[in-house]
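User: Can you recover a sequence for this backbone? Please restate the input before giving your answer.

Assistant: Of course. Working from this structure:
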């Protein structure tokens, strides 16, 4: 499955087959964090919750689920 991302007016398409195992793990970890906060994007959070969200991501290391 491909995913598109827009950055600086350029669109990047990522094929999940091209991701490393660590990148796949991080995507899963990030998705779980979004579900925990019941949002689709960190942009949907207020400033305080957004800070908590990203602080929680700082502890991730490959192999940590």
């Amino acid at each position: 499955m491909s995913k598109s991302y827009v950055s600086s007016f350029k669109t990047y398409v990522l094929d999940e087959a091209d991701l490393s195992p660590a990148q796949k793990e991080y995507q899963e970890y990030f998705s779980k964090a979004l579900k925990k906060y019941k949002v689709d994007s960190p942009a949907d959070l207020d400033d305080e919750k957004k800070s908590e969200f990203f602080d929680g991501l700082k502890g991730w290391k490959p192999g940590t689920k």
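That completes the design. The chain is about 40% helix and 20% strand.
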